Amino acid sequence: MPPVLRGTVLAVLGVTAFSLTFPGTAWALEGFGAWSVTGLRMLLAGLLALGWLLAAGARLPERRHRVPLLVVAGGVVVGFPLLTTMALRTSSTAHAAVVVGLLPLTTAAYGAWRHRVRHSRTFWAAAGVGAAVVVGFAVRESGGGLTAGDLLLFGALLVCAAGYGEGGRLARELPGWQVIGWALVLCLPVAAVLTVAALAAEPVAPTGRAVAGLAWLVVGSQWLGLIVWYRGMGLIGVGRASQLQLAQPLLTLVWAVLLVGETLSPLAPVAAVAVLACIAVTQRSGRSG
Protein backbone atom coordinates (compact mmCIF):
# COMPACT_ATOMS: atom_id res chain seq x y z
CA MET A 1 0.00 0.00 0.00
CA PRO A 2 1.46 3.43 -0.93
CA PRO A 3 2.46 5.56 2.10
CA VAL A 4 -0.19 8.23 1.43
CA LEU A 5 -2.98 5.67 1.16
CA ARG A 6 -1.72 3.78 4.21
CA GLY A 7 -1.53 7.00 6.21
CA THR A 8 -5.05 7.96 5.17
CA VAL A 9 -6.45 4.55 6.17
CA LEU A 10 -4.72 4.74 9.57
CA ALA A 11 -5.95 8.28 10.18
CA VAL A 12 -9.52 7.22 9.28
CA LEU A 13 -9.30 4.37 11.80
CA GLY A 14 -8.17 6.88 14.39
CA VAL A 15 -11.07 9.21 13.61
CA THR A 16 -13.49 6.29 13.91
CA ALA A 17 -12.08 5.43 17.33
CA PHE A 18 -12.28 9.05 18.45
CA SER A 19 -15.89 9.36 17.28
CA LEU A 20 -16.83 6.89 20.02
CA THR A 21 -15.08 8.89 22.74
CA PHE A 22 -18.04 11.09 23.71
CA PRO A 23 -20.56 8.22 23.79
CA GLY A 24 -18.04 6.20 25.80
CA THR A 25 -17.61 9.10 28.20
CA ALA A 26 -21.38 9.47 28.56
CA TRP A 27 -21.59 5.79 29.48
CA ALA A 28 -18.70 6.04 31.94
CA LEU A 29 -20.28 9.04 33.67
CA GLU A 30 -23.30 6.87 34.49
CA GLY A 31 -21.24 5.10 37.15
CA PHE A 32 -18.23 7.31 37.88
CA GLY A 33 -17.57 10.98 38.58
CA ALA A 34 -15.86 13.19 36.00
CA TRP A 35 -12.55 13.30 37.87
CA SER A 36 -12.66 9.54 38.46
CA VAL A 37 -13.27 8.86 34.76
CA THR A 38 -10.32 11.08 33.82
CA GLY A 39 -7.99 9.59 36.41
CA LEU A 40 -8.87 5.97 35.66
CA ARG A 41 -8.58 6.58 31.93
CA MET A 42 -5.09 8.04 32.34
CA LEU A 43 -3.93 5.47 34.88
CA LEU A 44 -5.12 2.32 33.13
CA ALA A 45 -3.98 3.49 29.71
CA GLY A 46 -0.62 4.49 31.20
CA LEU A 47 -0.13 1.05 32.74
CA LEU A 48 -1.08 -0.54 29.42
CA ALA A 49 1.44 1.66 27.62
CA LEU A 50 4.18 0.94 30.17
CA GLY A 51 3.71 -2.80 29.79
CA TRP A 52 3.76 -2.50 26.00
CA LEU A 53 6.92 -0.39 25.99
CA LEU A 54 8.73 -2.76 28.35
CA ALA A 55 7.67 -5.85 26.39
CA ALA A 56 8.85 -4.26 23.15
CA GLY A 57 12.16 -3.17 24.65
CA ALA A 58 11.61 0.43 23.58
CA ARG A 59 14.47 2.83 24.27
CA LEU A 60 13.92 5.97 26.29
CA PRO A 61 13.12 9.01 24.13
CA GLU A 62 16.00 11.25 23.16
CA ARG A 63 16.32 14.61 24.90
CA ARG A 64 15.01 16.50 21.86
CA HIS A 65 11.82 14.45 21.99
CA ARG A 66 10.97 15.20 25.60
CA VAL A 67 9.43 18.66 25.29
CA PRO A 68 7.14 17.63 22.40
CA LEU A 69 6.15 14.56 24.41
CA LEU A 70 5.20 16.81 27.32
CA VAL A 71 2.99 18.82 24.97
CA VAL A 72 1.35 15.60 23.75
CA ALA A 73 0.84 14.49 27.34
CA GLY A 74 -0.66 17.79 28.39
CA GLY A 75 -2.92 17.98 25.35
CA VAL A 76 -4.27 14.51 24.58
CA VAL A 77 -3.64 12.61 27.83
CA VAL A 78 -4.61 15.20 30.45
CA GLY A 79 -6.18 18.31 28.93
CA PHE A 80 -8.63 17.03 26.34
CA PRO A 81 -9.98 14.07 28.38
CA LEU A 82 -10.38 16.16 31.53
CA LEU A 83 -12.02 19.18 29.89
CA THR A 84 -14.39 17.17 27.69
CA THR A 85 -15.39 14.83 30.52
CA MET A 86 -16.24 17.80 32.73
CA ALA A 87 -18.16 19.43 29.87
CA LEU A 88 -20.20 16.29 29.22
CA ARG A 89 -21.64 16.46 32.71
CA THR A 90 -23.93 19.22 31.42
CA SER A 91 -23.62 19.04 27.61
CA SER A 92 -25.14 16.36 25.42
CA THR A 93 -23.03 14.26 23.08
CA ALA A 94 -24.52 16.08 20.09
CA HIS A 95 -23.82 19.49 21.58
CA ALA A 96 -20.20 18.57 22.31
CA ALA A 97 -19.86 17.59 18.66
CA VAL A 98 -20.52 21.22 17.74
CA VAL A 99 -17.21 22.36 19.16
CA VAL A 100 -15.27 19.25 18.16
CA GLY A 101 -16.17 20.10 14.56
CA LEU A 102 -13.63 22.91 14.85
CA LEU A 103 -10.75 20.58 15.76
CA PRO A 104 -9.52 20.01 12.18
CA LEU A 105 -9.09 23.74 11.68
CA THR A 106 -7.39 24.32 15.02
CA THR A 107 -5.06 21.38 14.40
CA ALA A 108 -4.18 22.51 10.88
CA ALA A 109 -3.68 26.09 12.08
CA TYR A 110 -1.39 24.94 14.88
CA GLY A 111 0.59 22.75 12.52
CA ALA A 112 0.96 25.55 9.98
CA TRP A 113 2.12 28.00 12.67
CA ARG A 114 4.36 25.64 14.62
CA HIS A 115 6.01 23.86 11.71
CA ARG A 116 5.87 26.63 9.09
CA VAL A 117 3.71 24.64 6.70
CA ARG A 118 1.92 26.61 4.00
CA HIS A 119 -1.30 25.19 2.60
CA SER A 120 -3.01 26.38 -0.56
CA ARG A 121 -5.99 28.72 -0.52
CA THR A 122 -8.11 25.88 -1.82
CA PHE A 123 -7.10 23.78 1.17
CA TRP A 124 -8.11 26.48 3.65
CA ALA A 125 -11.32 27.30 1.78
CA ALA A 126 -12.42 23.67 1.73
CA ALA A 127 -11.44 23.24 5.37
CA GLY A 128 -13.44 26.32 6.33
CA VAL A 129 -16.51 25.19 4.41
CA GLY A 130 -16.30 21.71 5.90
CA ALA A 131 -15.97 23.07 9.41
CA ALA A 132 -18.91 25.42 8.81
CA VAL A 133 -21.05 22.51 7.61
CA VAL A 134 -20.16 20.42 10.65
CA VAL A 135 -20.72 23.24 13.13
CA GLY A 136 -23.96 24.39 11.51
CA PHE A 137 -25.35 20.87 11.40
CA ALA A 138 -24.32 20.08 14.97
CA VAL A 139 -25.73 23.38 16.29
CA ARG A 140 -29.04 22.60 14.60
CA GLU A 141 -29.06 19.11 16.08
CA SER A 142 -28.37 20.38 19.59
CA GLY A 143 -31.07 23.04 19.55
CA GLY A 144 -29.05 26.04 18.37
CA GLY A 145 -27.81 27.17 21.77
CA LEU A 146 -24.60 27.14 23.76
CA THR A 147 -24.24 25.24 27.01
CA ALA A 148 -22.27 25.93 30.18
CA GLY A 149 -19.68 23.38 29.04
CA ASP A 150 -18.74 25.22 25.84
CA LEU A 151 -15.80 27.12 27.37
CA LEU A 152 -14.39 23.81 28.59
CA LEU A 153 -14.81 22.35 25.11
CA PHE A 154 -13.11 25.34 23.46
CA GLY A 155 -10.19 24.95 25.87
CA ALA A 156 -10.08 21.24 25.02
CA LEU A 157 -9.78 22.10 21.33
CA LEU A 158 -6.76 24.32 21.91
CA VAL A 159 -4.78 21.84 23.99
CA CYS A 160 -5.75 18.92 21.74
CA ALA A 161 -4.61 20.78 18.62
CA ALA A 162 -1.20 21.33 20.22
CA GLY A 163 -0.99 17.67 21.26
CA TYR A 164 -1.95 16.47 17.78
CA GLY A 165 0.47 18.86 16.10
CA GLU A 166 3.47 17.86 18.20
CA GLY A 167 2.54 14.19 18.12
CA GLY A 168 2.16 14.18 14.36
CA ARG A 169 5.62 15.64 13.96
CA LEU A 170 7.13 13.17 16.44
CA ALA A 171 5.50 10.29 14.54
CA ARG A 172 7.88 11.00 11.67
CA GLU A 173 10.76 9.96 13.94
CA LEU A 174 9.14 7.57 16.41
CA PRO A 175 6.50 4.85 15.93
CA GLY A 176 3.01 6.09 16.76
CA TRP A 177 2.71 3.66 19.67
CA GLN A 178 5.84 5.12 21.23
CA VAL A 179 4.59 8.69 20.86
CA ILE A 180 1.39 8.08 22.80
CA GLY A 181 3.03 5.39 24.94
CA TRP A 182 5.71 7.66 26.39
CA ALA A 183 3.20 10.50 26.79
CA LEU A 184 0.97 8.21 28.85
CA VAL A 185 3.90 6.97 30.95
CA LEU A 186 4.92 10.56 31.71
CA CYS A 187 1.45 11.11 33.17
CA LEU A 188 1.40 8.02 35.40
CA PRO A 189 2.37 9.80 38.66
CA VAL A 190 -0.29 12.46 38.14
CA ALA A 191 -2.82 9.82 37.09
CA ALA A 192 -2.21 7.73 40.23
CA VAL A 193 -2.68 10.68 42.58
CA LEU A 194 -5.73 11.95 40.71
CA THR A 195 -7.39 8.53 40.64
CA VAL A 196 -6.95 7.86 44.36
CA ALA A 197 -8.20 11.33 45.31
CA ALA A 198 -11.15 11.23 42.88
CA LEU A 199 -12.36 7.78 43.89
CA ALA A 200 -12.27 8.85 47.53
CA ALA A 201 -14.21 12.07 46.87
CA GLU A 202 -16.75 11.07 44.22
CA PRO A 203 -19.55 8.48 44.42
CA VAL A 204 -18.90 5.28 42.47
CA ALA A 205 -21.72 3.05 41.23
CA PRO A 206 -20.29 1.05 38.31
CA THR A 207 -22.78 -0.50 35.91
CA GLY A 208 -22.11 -2.66 32.88
CA ARG A 209 -22.42 0.36 30.56
CA ALA A 210 -20.21 2.50 32.77
CA VAL A 211 -17.45 -0.11 32.82
CA ALA A 212 -17.77 -0.70 29.07
CA GLY A 213 -17.55 3.03 28.40
CA LEU A 214 -14.47 3.37 30.59
CA ALA A 215 -12.87 0.35 28.92
CA TRP A 216 -13.35 1.92 25.50
CA LEU A 217 -11.84 5.21 26.68
CA VAL A 218 -8.76 3.36 27.90
CA VAL A 219 -8.18 0.87 25.08
CA GLY A 220 -9.85 2.51 22.09
CA SER A 221 -9.67 6.28 22.52
CA GLN A 222 -6.52 6.67 24.61
CA TRP A 223 -4.38 3.87 23.19
CA LEU A 224 -5.22 2.12 19.91
CA GLY A 225 -6.92 5.14 18.36
CA LEU A 226 -3.97 7.41 19.06
CA ILE A 227 -1.46 4.83 17.84
CA VAL A 228 -2.99 4.65 14.36
CA TRP A 229 -3.78 8.39 14.37
CA TYR A 230 -0.21 9.48 15.04
CA ARG A 231 1.14 6.99 12.54
CA GLY A 232 -1.30 8.30 9.95
CA MET A 233 -0.28 11.91 10.64
CA GLY A 234 3.36 10.94 10.33
CA LEU A 235 2.69 9.59 6.83
CA ILE A 236 0.37 12.23 5.35
CA GLY A 237 1.06 15.31 7.48
CA VAL A 238 -0.77 17.04 10.31
CA GLY A 239 -2.83 19.33 8.06
CA ARG A 240 -4.25 16.67 5.77
CA ALA A 241 -4.87 14.20 8.57
CA SER A 242 -6.67 16.85 10.62
CA GLN A 243 -9.18 17.43 7.82
CA LEU A 244 -10.30 13.81 8.02
CA GLN A 245 -11.67 14.73 11.44
CA LEU A 246 -14.34 16.79 9.73
CA ALA A 247 -16.29 13.52 9.59
CA GLN A 248 -15.87 12.86 13.32
CA PRO A 249 -18.78 14.96 14.62
CA LEU A 250 -21.19 13.31 12.19
CA LEU A 251 -19.96 9.88 13.22
CA THR A 252 -20.33 10.90 16.87
CA LEU A 253 -23.94 11.94 16.21
CA VAL A 254 -24.64 8.54 14.65
CA TRP A 255 -23.19 6.77 17.69
CA ALA A 256 -25.17 9.12 19.92
CA VAL A 257 -28.37 7.83 18.30
CA LEU A 258 -27.38 4.17 18.46
CA LEU A 259 -25.66 4.12 21.85
CA VAL A 260 -26.91 7.08 23.88
CA GLY A 261 -30.46 7.41 22.54
CA GLU A 262 -30.26 10.92 21.09
CA THR A 263 -32.16 11.87 17.93
CA LEU A 264 -30.70 12.58 14.49
CA SER A 265 -32.15 14.87 11.84
CA PRO A 266 -32.94 13.68 8.29
CA LEU A 267 -30.39 16.31 7.19
CA ALA A 268 -27.56 14.04 8.39
CA PRO A 269 -26.97 12.32 5.01
CA VAL A 270 -26.87 15.71 3.23
CA ALA A 271 -24.35 17.08 5.71
CA ALA A 272 -22.27 13.89 5.50
CA VAL A 273 -22.01 14.15 1.70
CA ALA A 274 -21.02 17.83 1.94
CA VAL A 275 -18.33 17.07 4.51
CA LEU A 276 -16.94 14.17 2.51
CA ALA A 277 -16.72 16.45 -0.54
CA CYS A 278 -14.72 18.99 1.48
CA ILE A 279 -12.40 16.26 2.74
CA ALA A 280 -11.79 15.12 -0.85
CA VAL A 281 -10.82 18.68 -1.82
CA THR A 282 -8.40 19.10 1.09
CA GLN A 283 -6.77 15.76 0.32
CA ARG A 284 -6.12 16.86 -3.29
CA SER A 285 -5.08 20.46 -2.68
CA GLY A 286 -1.79 19.77 -0.86
CA ARG A 287 0.68 22.44 0.14
CA SER A 288 1.40 25.70 -1.55
CA GLY A 289 5.03 25.65 -0.52
Number of helical segments with 4 or more residues: 14
Strand-residue fraction?
under 5%
For the sheet with most strands, the description reads: none
> How many whole angstroms does the radius of gyration measure?
18 Å
Which spans of ≥5 residues are poorly predicted at pLDDT below 50? none
C-alpha termini separation: 26 Å
Structural class: mainly alpha
Spatial shape: globular
The helix content is over 70%
The counted number of beta strands is 0
> Mean pLDDT, rounded to whole units?
88
Order of helices and strands: HHHHHHHHHHHHHH
How would you characterize this protein structure?
This protein is mostly helical and about 290 residues long. It has helices spanning about 5-20, 20-30, 35-55, 65-85, 95-100, 105-115, 120-140, 150-170, 175-185, 190-200, 210-235, 240-245, 250-260, 270-285. The longest helix is centred in the C-terminal third of the chain and has 29 residues, at about 210-235. It is globular, with a radius of gyration of 18 Å.
